[in-house]
């Protein structure tokens, strides 16, 4: 009898875990890779479907952390509250309040540095959830690449042509 009862309990446990998993509580995070350049910015995505928000926006909380669990930004009941934000993210994080009502809680990190290359974790909690991990890669900026650009062969040809004309005249 006891054995029978515990089997039923186990069954219920498995069903509830499956249900929780189905609603996203235990589901694997979405993994995204984003590339940015030194001095520029990068957008880290995190959203729930438009249809899930409706008029429940104040029921959603969004927590952005880095892989060292440092606070990047929080959006509580559609209000950005970056108190206790880690100093290295101060004045560098943009949120998009117009996008909240579409379920889009993406953030933008400005003035990228090489040391920003790491993982950023987003958790949306509320009537529906999201868990997204963005892996940021930071490469040397446009300026660096521009300075090292070699002149094209057409430009070299035109230059030699002009110099030849000048010397002949
Ligand atoms: C979670 O957010 C990511 C990034 O915006 C998106 O690709 C994914 O579809 C979202 N998952 C759910 C269940 O809404
Ligand atoms: C969010 O901001 C709105 C408008 O400024 C305010 O009415 C509301 O109380 C705030 N909610 C929280 C949880 O701070
Ligand atoms: C969410 O908002 C950001 C910032 O405006 C934008 O770059 C991104 O494309 C938006 N994502 C979706 C799924 O609309």
Structural key phrases:
binds 2-acetamido-2-deoxy-beta-D-glucopyranose; 169 residues; 9 strands; 5 helices; Immunoglobulin-like; six-stranded mixed β-sheet; alpha+beta; elongated
Overall description:
This protein has five helices and nine strands, in the order αββαββββαβββαα. Strand 3 (61-66) and strand 4 (71-76) form a beta hairpin. The mean pLDDT is 83. It is elongated, with a radius of gyration of 26 Å. With 169 residues, the chain is of the alpha+beta class. The protein has one domain: Immunoglobulins (Immunoglobulin-like), CATH 2.60.40. It has helices at residues 2-22, 50-53, 97-100, 142-147, 153-168; strands at 30-37, 42-44, 61-66, 71-76, 79-80, 93-95, 107-109, 119-125, 130-139. The chain has a six-stranded mixed beta sheet with strand order 1-9-8-3-4-5, with no helix packed on it. A three-stranded antiparallel beta sheet has the order 2-7-6, with no helix packed on it. The structure holds 2-acetamido-2-deoxy-beta-D-glucopyranose (3 copies).
What small molecules does this complex bind?
2-acetamido-2-deoxy-beta-D-glucopyranose
Q: How many structural domains can be distinguished in the coordinates?
A: 1
Any idea what the shape is? Answer: elongated
Oligomerization status of the protein chains: single chain
Structural class: alpha+beta
Tell me how many strands there are. 9
Treating each run of at least 4 consecutive H or I residues as one helix, how many helices?
5
The first-level CATH class name = Mainly Beta
